[in-house]
């Protein structure tokens, strides 16, 4: 079974996840919501660290939750949102960082999908396929 992806619902889930971000250093709260073919949604938020470079992005946290729970594919859509709470004017569209594109690709390639990536933001945000954000990706399929 494969559900019809609901953009507004997935962005709402990402926004709720962003409310749980642990981002005391950057103050930039990011939420990600991953939608699977069975209709399940897994969310994540960024988790920063006093040793700044160890911080984890929201998309990476969500992907790790899935893989460490036994999920191995079926990823059909991802919503990402971010901003500084209380500063709505700075709500620039957030696209997944380079590392997160690679992390999401692992999950996508395992199930042979090319998920939609919905980037929340002012002026309607952006809708892209993961393959547009990360063309010619290296993933599990390359390891034979
Ligand atoms: N961040 C994410 O969670 N996802 C991204 O794709 C971009 C950046 C986080 C990392 C850091 O905690 C904060 O946003 C500022 O860079």
UniProtKB/TrEMBL annotation:
- Which one GO biological process term can you cite for this protein? pyrimidine-containing compound metabolic process
- Which InterPro entries does the record match to this protein? CMP_dCMP_dom (IPR002125), Cyt/Deoxycyt_deaminase (IPR050202), Cytidine_deaminase-like (IPR016193)
Classification from the root reads:
Bacteria, Pseudomonadati, Pseudomonadota, Alphaproteobacteria, Sphingomonadales
Q: What is this protein called?
A: Cytidine deaminase
Q: Where is the CMP/dCMP-type deaminase domain?
A: 5-141
**Pfam families from the UniProt entry:** dCMP_cyt_deam_1 (PF00383)
Any single Gene Ontology cellular-component annotation? cytosol
MF terms (GO), sorted A to Z? cytidine deaminase activity; zinc ion binding
Belongs to which family?
Belongs to the cytidine and deoxycytidylate deaminase family.
